[in-house]
Every structure is written in structure tokens, then in C-alpha cells.
Amino acid sequence: MRGCFPAPAVTSGAASSTMTQIVLGGRRKKDPFELSVCSSTSTCFALLIHKEHNQQSQIQRQRQRRRECVWFSERSKWKGGRGVGVALQVQQQQCTYESREEKEWVVVNFYHFVFIKDAEAEVAKHLSFLEGRDIRGRIYVNQQGINAQYSGPSRDALAYVEWLRGDERFSDILVQISAAQNGHAFPKLKLRYKPSLVQLEGGISHLPLLDPSMRATPLTPSEWRKRLEAVNTTSEASNKDLKTNQILLDVRNGYEWDIGHFNGAQRPDVDCFRSTSFGLSQPEVIAADPLENVDKEKTDILMYCTGGIRCDVYSTILRQQGFQNLYTLKGGVSHYLENEGPVQWVGNLFVFDSRLSLPPPAYKPEAITKPNRHEVSENNTFAQCYICGLQVNDLRHRNCANLDCNLLYLCCMNCVKNLRGCCCLECTGAPRLRPVLPGFQRYKKWHTYRDTISQSKLTT
């Protein structure tokens, strides 16, 4: 876990509905802006209003009114005010996100494998579109596709999604959206060419990611739920053969499993996905490899990760190793929680941004579940303090205060206090020791603390 901290991943999406786009044209086509208006039948109407450029006060008043989401029937007519033309252009499109207020902050995640002939030129196009928009995050592009995780005001964040979907290569991307309660979830924007969309030892450029037949078969959230329920609700005796022929593989980092996982999933024996070696039969990892000595033609391998991209990547490796029956959770855990709620899920979901941990209701607030025996795992390694071994109540990681360690770990507040935010006694004597952070804040750049610590030493 040391030196290995959050790589890209994806969060929640939204159900698909039909969008009708209505363009109202004024005399001068300047200062356009878009309003999403949703009907109770899930039909969304996007109104693009073109107003006179010099009528600033009127524009401000109208923009303020149109920030609200108005519900009306599919046959209702919109009546424009003064100064609005009568030209109407109706166009059917697919709307894959809910109408959101202009000032709402969101985190958007998506990835897509598709051949991009000139990746550098593609990066330049994206940078040009995002110029002047308030978006921060990680957006990587190469010849195999795109992988994006970013935050921003919903107006800017979703405008990028719609612009991207205007390109037929990306028209069917699965976009996942979750709330960012405290503004940006990322410190800055990194939009660039990157040789590997996912970090894996040896790289991924040689993998047949653009061939869907080489990737695992995607299961919808409902299909995934039925698979897990068939195993976990059947008695141990009658389910012996079924469990032998089905393996639930958590293709994430061990610290992600520590705060949440599906019932029946083993803890990954790696602290970085880049070193994952399931099914590769290396002598040093055979003992911890759940795919060792399994029947490659008869065993069903069910794989899941946060947003789906790591499973898609790793499934091509397993396919090349001869595994026949490979299945992935489409859209990952975040997509599952949004559609199915926390059924068969234990704990929270680790996310790769400043929020670090999200409870299931963050994806599906209306899901109400009764406490059950799975909420506290029978496996005594779940949700334990890394230092003292006691169970922790807050499923959120900390970084060790020793900058040169930076271990990401679960810790009870008593141990945080006793070891001054460090993961062990040795780290408490480190030369580059950051202060103890209250609660679960994130550490900033070292120079922030270096200057403060230096000044403190001078005064003492």
C-alpha cells in the first residue's frame, strides 16, 4: 500500500430517458444557454433560448427563473415571453442524466475503449472545448480510448458529456454521476495523452481491448444481483458444487475491500491493481490466487471493480490465459448501487477523489434496507483498525502523517491520537512529519506543512 494511492476509477450514473430538444430563435443568435425541463414521463426538453445581446438585465432575470426544473406533460406547450422568436426545431435525442440545477456540483466518471487514430489531436480538441469551463480531474486519452474522472458545476460537467456524445465514437458511453457536496473533488485538471488508461505492470497497449469478444461478458446490475443471490441464499450443503464452479473476484486494491465489498468476495492480496496477478500462476502468489487449479472451461469467473475499466482490462489477460467463462459487472459497483441499492453489498465504496468513501445511499437515497447479519462481516479482517485491530465505525481511510510513508489505512481515533496520525511507532520519528488532521481531511502539498513546521521550530 505504501506509495500506491488512488488511480482513476468511476462513480455513479443515471437512468436513461428521452430528450426532446426545442430551439427557440430570436432575431440575433447570441448568448445561447440551455435549460433542462423534465416531464413526469421522463421526457426531457432542452430549451435553448437566444436573446438580444444588449438586453443584459432581462437575460439575467430569465436565467434566474429558468434554473428551476419544471415538470409538465409530454403534450404541454411552452409559451415564450417578449423578445423570443417563434421558430421551433424539435429533435429526439437520448438523455442519460437527470436534470440538475446550474449550481449543483457533481463528479462525473466514464471510460470507453475505441480506436483513436490521432490521440494527440484528440486531446487538443478536448482542451479547446473545456477552455473557460470549471472542470478539474483526470482525463486520459490514447489510441485505445478515453478514461475520465472529473468534478465541476453540473452545467459545465454535463456540457462536456453532451459534447463528447456528439461524436459517434462516444455516443454510447455509460456516464456515472454522483454529488460533490463541497465543490471540486479534484485539485486541478489533468487532460493529456497517457500510454496506459489503467496502470498495470507491463502496460496495456499490447492487450486486445478494442475486441469486445476478448473482454468479459458484461452483466447488468439486476443480472449480477440474481447471480449473487443464487449463491448466498442457498444452503451451504446444496450449494457446494455451485460455489466450486463460480468464483467472485474483486479486481481492486486491498484497501478498497477494507471498507466495502460484495458478500462472498475474498480480499485482494495486492495493495495496487498494477501488481494484480490472478490466474497467472506465478510461484510466489499461487497460495493466494483464487484462480489457481480451477477448471478454466467450466468455472464462471465473476469480476467487479469500482467503475468497470479494471475488470475489462484484466479480463483480456485471463482470456489469453484460457479462461472461458468470464463475466463483469457492467458499470462497476457504483452503477450497481445506483440501480440495485446495497443488496449483497457490505460497507461503503472507496472512490478515487477527495471524498474517498461513499455510503450506498449516496447513489440511491431512496433505498431503505433493514439491518442484517451481513452489515458486520463475519470475516474479522473487515473494517478493523490497522494498528490495534479493533473494529472502526467510520469507513474512511487516512494517510500516514509521515510523508515518506503515506500509507493509506483504516484507523480508530484513539490510535490517531496516540501515534500522532502515523501508522506505526517508527513513523512518529520521521523527519518529514505532517500534523495530525482532525476528522478525515486530506493532506495538502508538503510545502504547506514544511513552512509551518519550520516557523514553529524557530519560535520554540
Automatic annotation (TrEMBL):
Pfam families assigned to the protein according to its UniProt record, in alphabetical order: Rhodanese, Rhodanese_C, UPF0176_N
What SUPFAM superfamilies does the record tag this protein with?
Rhodanese/Cell cycle control phosphatase
Domain Rhodanese residues, every copy: 242-345
Gene3D superfamilies recorded: 3.30.70.100, Rhodanese-like domain
Highest taxon, organism lineage: Eukaryota
CDD domains hit by this protein: RHOD_YceA
The molecule here is called: Rhodanese-like domain-containing protein 8, chloroplastic
